[in-house]
Design goal:
Elements lengths: L2 E2 L1 E3 L8 E6 L3 E8 L2 E5 L9 E5 L3 E3 L3 E6 L3 E14 L9
Antiparallel strand pairs: 1-9, 2-7, 3-4, 3-9, 4-5, 5-6, 6-8, 8-9
Length: about 100
């Protein structure tokens, strides 16, 4: 799965998966189109995939991932240290 310095979630095709490593957690995101996502990785807020939206669609190494869970709970993560991208139809997957 290729690494990237940053990705713009709004420009990604539905079905694209992101593997986001922050200083404290490891998130898995499935892009659903626009800013809509399904996200998991936080033991309290999203231990299993939960619907949400990215607040800032630009996810960059050194920045913070910001998302809204179920359209009501804002979450800001620790700094992003690695972003990996899996486009639909490519051979690698996120498990």
């Amino acid at each position: 799965m290729p690494s990237a310095e940053f990705v713009d979630c709004k420009s990604l095709s539905p079905g694209t998966r992101l593997d986001i490593e922050t200083r404290n957690r490891h998130y898995r995101i499935e892009c659903l189109g626009g800013s809509a996502i399904r996200i998991s990785g936080h033991p309290d807020y999203c231990p299993t995939p939960v619907s949400g939206r990215v607040i800032d669609p630009l996810i960059a190494c050194g920045g913070h991932l910001q998302f809204l869970l179920e359209d009501r709970r804002p979450v800001t993560t620790s700094r992003v240290v690695k972003v990996r991208l899996h486009q639909p139809g490519s051979p690698s997957t996120i498990h």
